[in-house]
Design a protein that fits this description.
By secondary structure, the chain is an alpha/beta fold. It has six helices and seven strands, in the order αβαβαβαβαβββα. The protein has a seven-stranded mixed β-sheet, sandwiched between helices.
């Protein structure tokens, strides 16, 4: 019964929804140069306890991308949990490959988004392009996460408002 329900859910998803798996392929694409992840609570991808890792091996995607020169930055709220997770990232990767910016409550509230938002910069034929993706709070029976691509006007506005925290990565 669950399988039939899951099939129905998957078939009936709007075409603009991007699954976590599809999003991971986008982030792993060859021309990706920079990924900026903005989220209130940093994930468990690099937690030393593998039982707490997310369903998809996102840490492996990040590791492979950094090994091929992609630069990462996480922008999150300054909380005790995020400080611990930021320290893990800082120990795993060189500062020129991965940075973490922890914002105080007022700074975080000034950002134009509250859900996980990711800016992906690609460079193709010398031309730089930025796309933004917003993780939306829709879960199916398998706890799949979904994303939508942010329209260009909103992407530009959001990126402009978050730019002061992007630290030139």
């Amino acid at each position: 019964m669950i399988s039939a329900e899951l099939n129905y859910l998957t078939r009936s998803l709007p075409t603009y929804l991007i699954t976590d798996q599809e999003y991971s392929r986008i982030e792993s694409a060859k021309p990706t140069a920079r990924v900026i992840i903005c989220k209130g609570e940093m994930g468990l991808e690099f937690d030393p306890d593998p039982s707490r890792h997310p369903k998809l091996p996102y840490d492996q995607i990040v590791r492979k991308n950094i090994a091929r020169g992609v630069r990462y930055q996480w922008i999150s709220q300054d909380t005790e949990k995020n400080k611990i997770r930021a320290d893990i990232i800082r120990k795993l990767f060189p500062a020129d490959s991965a940075r973490v910016s922890l914002l105080n409550g007022k700074e975080w509230q000034e950002l134009p988004f509250s859900l996980e938002t990711v800016f992906i910069t690609t460079i193709l034929n010398g031309s730089e392009k930025v796309d933004a993706y917003l993780q939306i709070p829709v879960e199916d029976l398998e706890a799949e996460r979904y994303w939508i691509k942010v329209d260009p006007d909103r992407r530009d506005e959001w990126q402009g408002r978050a730019a002061r925290y992007m630290n030139g990565i």
